[in-house]
Amino acid sequence: MEDVTIKIKGMMCGHCEKLIREAAVAVKGVSKAKADFKKGEVKVSFDTSATDLETIKKAIAATGYQVLEEPQACPVPQPAKEAAAIPPEEGAKGGELRKITLSISGMSCASCAQNIERALNKLSGVRKASVNFSLERAAVEYDPTQVNPKTIEKTIADLGYGVVKRDITLKIGGMHCASCAINVEKALLKTEGIASANVSFPLEQAKITYDPEHVSISDIKKAVGDVGYTASEKLEKGDADREQRAREAEIKRQRTNFIIALLLAVPISLGDMGRNLGWTFVPEILKNDNLLFILATIVMLFPGRQFFEGTYRGLKHGVTDMNLLIATGTGAAYIISVAGTFFNLGEAYKHTYYDTAALLIMFIVLGRYLEALTKGKTSEAIRKLMGLQAKTARIIVDGAEKEIPVENVKVGDIVVVRPGEKIPVDGKVVEGLTAVDESMITGESMPVEKTVSSEVIGATINKTGMIKFTATKVGADTALAQIIQLVENAQTQKAPIQKLADIVAGHFILAVHALALLTFFFWFFVGFEYFNVPITYGMGAESPFLFSLLISITVLIISCPCAVGLATPTAIMVGTGKGAENGILIKGGEALERAQKLDTIVFDKTGTLTKGEPALTDVIAIRGTENEVLRLAAVAEKGSEHPLGEAILKGALVRGIEVPDAQEFKAIPGRGVEVKYGGKRILIGTRKLMIENGIDITQVNSKMEKLEHEGKTAMLVSSDNELAGIVAVADTLKENSKEAVHELRKMGYTVAMITGDNRRTADAIGKQLDIETILAEVLPEDKASEVKKLQAEGRKVAMVGDGINDAPALMQSDVGIAIGSGTDVAIESAQIVLIRNDVKDVAKAISLSKLTLNKIKQNLFWAFFYNSVGIPIAMGILYPFTSPPYLINPALAAAAMAASSVTVTMNTLLMKRIKLKG
Amino acid sequence: MEKKLGFYSTLASLVTSLLIVLLFYTLAMQKVQENMMYTTVDVYGGMVFVFILSMIVSASIWPGVIEKRMTKR
Predict the structure, then answer these.
(1) What is the pTM of this model?
(2) CB contact, 8 Å: B40 with chain A?
(3) So where are chain B's domains?
(4) Which residue of B has its CA nearest to A319?
């Protein structure tokens, strides 16, 4: 036996400890393993004849943590060659030294500090570096023209240590389209100290990873503020209510704006068009230029002000968004009308375009109103989850019940919950019996029975009896808090498919303005004369400037970056939200995309397809009745702690058989058990045990073989050296396993099963489930390589397991699906977590992924289709080919633009109605 | 650096826009002389609109270009 300590990097919590411990113990020959995340190490005792250190390290490394090289020693510093290639800080002046302080993780002794110090001092451009081991800080003085903080961080990371970074989610205000989200993202990524930033326009959130030593939260807020948006910290408590209020206020604001615009646009349009088209039913007063000017000015000043304010804020900070498109379009129509009203610009300028400006504003405000209404619905799921939280809890203090706010409940408190009340936090029942409605967390519609030692989940509803339970997880550790966190993270994360949308949205405003300029030039210099517009188009087309201007405005107005920007995030929000409602947690867009490409589903057998514990399956009587045989077997096994013995005893008790105590219990290793009962000698065990005791087993051999072929463990029972019968136990299938496998096969997937069991047992289970590909006799540490082999064949593999023992395989697979996690939803190794222990949810999760990705594709298609068809038509591409020549009216363009983003959001919301297969 | 970048960008955008406006003016005045439908009001109106659009486009392009050049140096 040998004891070693292996240094591990990346352990953050007890869950990491558990994962590493289990990975180490799973290696054959390892007798003991103890991980300590605080020290960043695992102590392993192993048999050198059965395994070696490298194998253990490999098994640990497969869990995703980094095994640092020399055990008990600090990593050897190596100068970072690649790091030196990183350019120095932009705009830095030569000779001007800067200082930074970095928080370092992973140092285990003073020599680690020296290693880092030495490596940093070797970096060209670093004047002085000192590392304090006890404070876990590095202070570096450097020349920014030669080296930048990123190079310094990389050097530290190359040595095997970490530079501590923090995550924060900020609420971003003032975003109106996908371009705004990109503007904020760009501004954040430009800020020194921010490692990554993901901004979601529909969620109005930014998820930022930053280095607290480089940048403070107020600096981050300032960076957002500098480009014209607002950033505020997300408060956990009451956040749902606050968000709801803010959303309602925005809906109310846009509704008021729309009503004002509508009430004014009607008379303006009647007046302006009535005068231009000579409508006699329109009262003369409405045709008055001065009145039209006043009414249109009100529209521009009130409902339309938001676009000009937004444009001003953006331009002030050098960013452009869709406000600019609208402001340029409506502003141009308004100004030319004002000029026409108050100045004598000639015959062609007697037409005014107040109606165009007013209708544009009205339709765009209507679009914003509808968008605010529908956008709120896409994040309904997360709001529902937030709303599930109980506000108060009743705990026992000095023997009396006391009601306290739920945030004040501490781990270990005894919580009392009466029928009909909400369970406030996660815990373990210590008294009482009840049924709990867990549908809001797990999606399970039937109430679940809870008795002493059962786990209860916070936010579920106690239905029938009063219970007392010990709080085990409170605050951010509860299942509900973790689910909310996970879903929020998933919704902020971008799917790879969104990259294209981001590129388009990032350059959209610029491209549209460039197109509008080109269009103006073309119609002014070429089109107007070439197509003889005053004759072919007629009314209102006497001036080449006005004609070209109106077409140019239409191009600006019809373009809609919103639809492109909303296509992916809204679908991910609804998809992940719908998943959460059904107990399916999908960790972001990448998992959704990968799930779409799957062709092979590999199930771990034990605990996933089967119950994971043996149960009595068969009793065959040779002498006496079946119950008598079972009774003898149970009597013999009563003193046994072997799982097979426990299964027999449980089977007997279930059948109502009384099992008295036996005497002289003797376990015979590898053979079975011998006891004395009622003066008789009872044996239960293998063929060998019977043969060694001179018992003839020839008559039962064929029956034994049959049972064994079915994957069952058959045991012979004898009484006073006379064969009494056979009992068989097996790991039984879960209720829905067969149906789940069938459903997946029907969906066209190749289903495989992976197990450490022997080939015969594995084949038997595979046969019952109709699984053709059976990977048997696979050691836990080899499961990942089996998945790798399948991937090498060109398959896209999903691995379904319990998320703990199968962690390496889950990580190796294209999509890792952890099943039956219950309250432990933060399983790192899986991209999809199924809360319920129901295999049928695998098909549901895959269906949901497909559905969401299809929705994203549909949305993107419609958004791109709309813009790529709408913009050329607005540019007048149909003019030469239609008679009378066709041009889109600017007001119609505004209506189409408003409709496009609403259509995309509505299309996404249709997902909510679809029932998941499986 | 930011101040310099802002100054150069604004200057480059202004120059670009003025050049485009000048091009527009030259071509438009030619049109005025050739075709009666074109008036000087059209030219001046067009110049304002072209200037606004050119400024928006060039102010979006120049900062990136100048930033890259400044970084290279």
Answers:
(1) 0.69
(2) no
(3) 2-72
(4) B60
